[in-house]
Design goal:
Structural class: alpha+beta
Largest sheet: 6 strands, antiparallel
Strand content: 35-45%
Number of strands: 6
Radius of gyration: 18 Å
Bound molecules: zinc ion
Length: 109
């Protein structure tokens, strides 16, 4: 019983540590991987920084924990919107509702 509790604790700790990692890691047969990049343009959206229309592109990169290279657990994906005109990238709370909607659509694909 004690051994089982300890194992679960280690599993939780490892999962937490991996969730906070920004870059993929590989520990032999276990680690994190990036999935296939998904992109979508925001044709009618205005860049809040340079005020240009039609240069924004939403990008979503899935991130997951793998066990023997089989995805077993989804981590927070890398999601951002970039402006091709001024090169500014928007993440998290910097995103406008329009950008969040584009990311949401990519997530549901
Ligand atoms: Zn811009």
């Amino acid at each position: 019983m004690e051994t089982r509790l300890l194992n679960e604790d280690i599993q939780t700790q490892v999962k937490k540590a991996l969730e906070n990692m920004e870059e993929p890691v590989d520990i032999l047969f276990f680690g994190t991987r990036r999935g296939k990049m998904r992109e979508a343009p925001l044709p009618g959206a205005v860049c809040p920084y340079c005020k240009q229309t039609g240069h924004l592109k939403a990008t979503l990169i899935p991130h997951f924990i793998h066990l023997f290279w089989i995805p077993v657990y989804r981590l927070r994906p890398l999601a951002y919107v970039e402006c091709a005109h001024c090169k500014k990238a928007y993440e998290g709370s910097e995103m406008t509702p329009e950008m969040e909607q584009a990311i949401g659509m990519l997530k549901s694909q």
